[in-house]
Amino acid sequence: MLVHVSALKSRFTQVPNDVIDNPRLGSDARNLLLWVLRRLRGAAVPPLSEIARRLGIKKSGFMRAKRELLNEGSTASIRRR
Q1: 13 and 34 in contact (C-beta within 8 Å)?
Q2: What are 34-43's contacts with CB under 8 Å, separation 24+?
Q3: What is the pTM assigned to this prediction?
């Protein structure tokens, strides 16, 4: 069976399966990480706390998400951007 799919040219983000499948990342942690991953290389990335505020993540959820990302080593790639 053939399926026709149009290739997206802009305004999309490819997400590694490791991010989607990781059972140790909650939804807030995934949302923070996806927001950062969608930024263009070289673009300024605001502090994670600012991103969390924009996404409507409350302080306790932000602290948990930050801890999950630190435990998974995701923030190293965020800091380099």
Answers
A1: yes
A2: 36/78, 36/81, 37/13, 38/13, 39/81, 41/81, 43/81
A3: 0.72
